[in-house]
Design a protein that fits this description.
GO molecular function: mannose-1-phosphate guanylyltransferase (GTP) activity
Number of domains: 3
Pfam families: MannoseP_isomer, NTP_transferase
Largest sheet: 7 strands, antiparallel
Shape: globular
Number of strands: 28
Number of helices: 11
Organism: Paenibacillus curdlanolyticus YK9
CATH topology of the largest domain: Spore Coat Polysaccharide Biosynthesis Protein SpsA, Chain A
Radius of gyration: 25 Å
Strand content: 25-35%
Keywords: Nucleotidyltransferase, Transferase
EC number: 2.7.7.13
Structural class: alpha+beta
Length: about 475
């Protein structure tokens, strides 16, 4: 079985910790067996690998999330990059074309599609693996995993099975109790609680967003819509694909759909209210809470202390992006409040480490001024790049490394100050974790003002370094002696 993990999300529901560059699946709020904090994507990838599915798993995501995935999971996962967000049908279509045309996956192979952020027990992935046999033995077009409802929820969609009387088109009785799967009648999206209770009485299941199909079936679906099955051609036409979910575009139109019931642990941690129910501690970061503050959770990413006195049933989240103080019952409204507000992300994880924005101002004399605290992990490097609209000043405050400036290689350590003017090509690699204060000044302090020439350090040194290890050139940079 091949697995596609869908990693999307705009980062609004768990603001201020989440943003467009760091969606909920990347927040390190849980503890693993070693007692270390881990994110949802790290937890799911570990469970997937433990089930033996990691070597045939792919992550479909947008460009903005590629580096944080590499930061948290390393280089192991194969990543399929969507040019832009266009809902789940375009993402799955592009992934299917990639498996078919790029990776050479056979048409009769079964592909399972999962969200990247479910909070589930390990048994969940064993049940996902059972979908392959259920799909093949039933000769169905689509196989689904359905969660046995714990209560009549109005937040989830429901998969409604066919009654077990007539003979179906596949063969045998509908929903034969001897079979592990059940035949699907229809779907109902987020009914009210009264209707949800009626659906539970009909043995309906929560739709947890897990699909399975033969790759050949999806290739036929693309051809039927006049879409190319060649990955490169589909990538070129991606902006023209209709923004629609896979459920509406494919599943609800399929002739034969089965569902495999799952009765284990499953939870969608999509709001602060549900997320705090599974957090390893009620206090994360620099925070103190008095005993009278019951059922209150604090997550603080800043160095400033947060003190909570006499506040119960609340969530308090503090990050470089902002501060949230909310009653837990009201916390789901944050997405509505933040819907039309766009801010520069103040914290990001990258493949080489992470950075936090310390200050951002505008001055009449020099334009924009952006100050960052950058940490580069040992053995990692920034790309070899240059800017046209900004000047950078690096102050190394900890660690050691080496850098390339316009083709010359230099050592760098705590106490050094480096000036990088516009158009100077530059990169830096940490031999021991590097911490740098970077001050940018210019007219356009955005990601668009980055021209990347190379990513891999060996490539940078081999193809762009001319003179080997040199002393710092006065015209290239300024060094303050240690």
């Amino acid at each position: 079985m091949h697995v596609i993990l869908l990693s999307g999300g705009s980062g609004k529901r768990l603001w201020p910790l989440s943003n467009d560059a760091r969606s909920k699946q990347f927040l390190k709020l849980f503890r693993n067996d070693a007692g270390e904090h881990e994110s949802m994507v790290q937890r799911v990838w570990g469970q997937l690998s433990q089930a033996g599915l990691g070597h045939q798993a792919y992550i479909a995501t947008g460009r903005a999330q590629v580096e944080v995935i590499q930061s948290q999971l390393g280089e192991e996962p194969a990543i399929i990059v969507e040019p832009e967000r266009r809902d789940t049908f375009p993402a799955i279509a592009l992934s299917a074309a990639c498996l078919y045309a790029v990776h050479g996956v056979p048409l009769d192979a079964v592909v399972a599609v999962l969200p990247v952020d479910p909070f589930v027990g390990d048994h969940f992935f064993a049940k996902v693996m059972e979908l392959e046999e259920a799909l093949l033995s039933s000769n169905a077009d689509i196989g689904l995993l359905g969660v046995s409802p714990a209560y009549p929820s109005a937040k989830y969609g429901y998969i409604v099975p066919i009654a077990d009387t007539p003979v179906d088109a596949i063969g045998g009785k509908n929903n034969d109790p001897s079979l592990p799967y059940r035949l699907v009648s229809h779907f109902e999206e987020k009914p009210d609680e009264e209707r949800a209770l009626q659906l539970m009485e009909q043995q309906a299941l929560w739709n947890c967003g897990v699909f399975a199909f033969r790759l050949g079936y999806m290739v036929q679906e693309l051809e039927a819509r006049g879409l190319p099955t060649d990955y490169d051609r589909l990538l070129e036409q991606y902006q023209q694909l209709r923004k629609i979910s896979f459920d509406y575009e494919v599943v609800e139109k399929a002739e034969r759909v089965i569902v495999l019931p799952y009765a284990g642990d499953w939870k969608d941690l999509g709001t602060w209210n549900t997320l705090t129910e599974e957090m390893s501690s009620s206090l994360i970061g620099h925070a103190i809470k008095c005993d009278e503050s019951l059922n209150t959770h604090v997550v603080n990413e800043l160095d400033l202390p947060v003190i909570v006195l006499g506040v119960s049933n609340a969530v308090i989240a503090v990050s470089p992006d902002g501060i949230l103080v909310a009653d837990k019952a009201a916390s789901p409204r944050i997405k509505e409040v933040m819907q039309h507000r766009e801010y520069r992300p103040m914290y990001e994880e990258r493949r080489w480490g992470r950075y936090r924005v310390l200050d951002y101002t505008k001055h009449p004399e020099c334009g924009e001024v952006l100050t960052k605290r950058i940490r580069i992990s040992a053995g990692r490097n920034l790309s070899y790049q240059y800017h046209t609209q900004r000047r950078e000043v690096w102050t190394v405050i900890a660690g050691q490394g080496e850098m390339v400036l316009d083709g010359s290689l230099h050592t760098i350590a705590a106490g050094d100050v480096v000036i990088v003017p516009p158009l100077m090509k530059h990169s830096i690699r940490a031999t021991a974790e590097l911490e740098i204060i970077e001050v940018q000044t210019g007219t356009e302090l955005t990601e668009e003002d980055i021209v990347r020439l190379a990513l891999d350090w060996e490539t940078i040194v081999r193809e762009h370094v001319a003179d080997g290890l040199n002393e710092m050139k006065a015209m290239a940079a300024v060094e303050v002696p240690r």
